[in-house]
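Filed under: proteins

Residues; backbone shape codes:
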Amino acid sequence: MTETDIPPEERAGFEEFVARVDGTNISAQTPLATDYLNHYNEIVMLLDMVPDMPDMIEECKLWQPKSYKEHFADSSFKDKALAIEAYDRVPTKFRRPFEETLSQMNTLIIGGVARLEDEIVAAADPGLITEHAKAISRAAQALMDCANAIIHGSDRAMAQVEIDGLLGD
């Protein structure tokens, strides 16, 4: 990304943080940190366990979305204060698709956990539960990959039709 890709009203704050994140795990291109995705890795791992251990759905239900700043406020990330402060300087070009992707992940996960719980309570076919858990996990991973790409400089979110294709809907 070049300086000219950033609107003038965002440029000064962005440039300040690019210099400050040098040598950290915060991307100098955006300035976002991949550590945030650990919040989503946690629920994907839990979802992957549900087919073999249906009672793990209770752990999945405890997971709640966290904003970027909330995640870092609660984390042990070395540069968490800088990550929180830098978020307000993320150019709109990246923040908008990043937040859209997070919203898609949150909707997918909350809805997917509710669907799996309903199927488990109804004693649905274990094969169906496995298929749905894998589809939700696969779609969440694709969205995390998209968020990771945005963190590293992409400005593209996934379209809903792409997510639906991963879910088989």
